[in-house]
Write a structure and sequence with these properties.
about 300 residues, Rossmann fold, Alpha-Beta Plaits, six-stranded mixed beta sheet, four-stranded antiparallel beta sheet, 14 strands, elongated
Length: about 300
């Protein structure tokens, strides 16, 4: 295991930010910390990066003890926070050169890392542009490049796509996948269930400083999220007839919308579709809705990832 965390705890006065957190991260995987703001994700990351002291417990990063070998831990980690750490009046190349100097990289090694970052993160087109003239997406890419200029084995990303539009988000997901292809281990903090589901090999769901569940996204959704449902929408004037025809199914209906939980959702959808068509009912929509990591979070905590309670 490249990261091992055991019974890690941190309090701020009477507030427990972390309460006995334990988990391991395997080399080469993208590991997600999923939870709303205030769940303890950032505190955990800052402790692993040596930026904040822990109260109890311990951790090792690539075999280095977090307390005894703090400087060695920092050398094998590349931390990319939400905030941009670039100097506005310096070019991207100059910002990367400054970051490289903090790790005493030789000019030869820096050139190699510059070429690698240009290839993996696509920053070559704006290397000579000042940071203050970059778009938001360019800044995030340059910020990530500066964070990994020393070629760390582990890349830690804290809410890397906050504020991104869908297109920018998917573009940045591509760069994160490229890091995995480069054999980096990625620890990703997010409150975006789609991001965690799309990227992560395993996800730790955090709630009030604890890990509520940890597994592959598919396993979490299957075991905790509940069954898939067949979602049907019909015309208002056919809603009553549709409900009568489907009375053998345990459905939940509201107006012209009908949801039917099903173990074999595809088979159930096929049966229902044929039945409705044979009785002259043509649906406006019929689809399978799979459980999401949000459903998992609600089942575990009774609240949404946004932090609001479920009524």
């Amino acid at each position: 295991m490249i990261i091992e965390v055991e019974e890690l705890s941190k309090s701020y006065g009477e507030i427990k930010a972390l309460d006995g957190v334990s988990f391991t991260v395997e080399e080469g995987e993208i590991f997600g910390l999923l939870g709303p703001n205030g769940a303890g994700k950032t505190t955990l990351i800052e402790i692993l990066c040596g930026l904040r002291r822990l109260d109890k417990g311990g951790a090792t990063v690539q075999g280095y003890d977090l307390i005894k070998d703090t400087y060695k831990v920092r050398g094998v980690i590349g931390f990319c926070p939400q905030e941009t750490l670039l100097y506005d009046l310096l070019t991207v190349r100059e910002n990367l050169a400054f970051s490289a100097s903090l790790y005493s990289l030789s000019s030869k090694k820096f050139k190699e890392r510059l070429e690698s970052s240009s290839k993996v993160l696509g920053i070559g087109e704006f290397l000579n542009r000042k940071a203050q003239h970059l778009s938001g997406g360019m800044k995030r890419r340059a910020n990530l490049a500066a964070s990994i200029v020393h070629d760390p084995a582990i890349v830690i990303l804290d809410e890397p796509t906050v504020g991104f539009d869908p297109n920018m988000k998917r573009e940045f997901w591509h760069f994160i996948r490229e890091l995995k292809k480069e054999e980096k281990t990625v620890l990703l903090s997010t409150h975006d269930m789609y991001e965690a589901d799309e990227l992560c090999d395993r996800v730790a769901i955090m709630h009030k400083g604890k890990i509520a569940a940890l597994d592959k996204p598919t396993v979490l959704k299957e075991k905790i999220g509940g069954q898939a449902t067949v979602h049907i929408r019909v015309r208002s004037d056919q809603a009553q007839k549709t409900r009568a025809l489907l009375k053998e199914y345990h459905f939940v209906a509201k107006d012209k919308e009908i949801n039917i939980p099903a173990k074999d959702a595809w088979q159930t959808m096929h049966e229902i579709s044929n039945k409705l068509i044979s009785h002259g009912i043509f649906t406006e929509k019929i689809e399978i809705v799979e459980p999401t990591l949000e459903d998992v979070f609600i089942k575990l905590t009774g609240s949404r990832l946004t932090g609001s309670e479920v009524s």
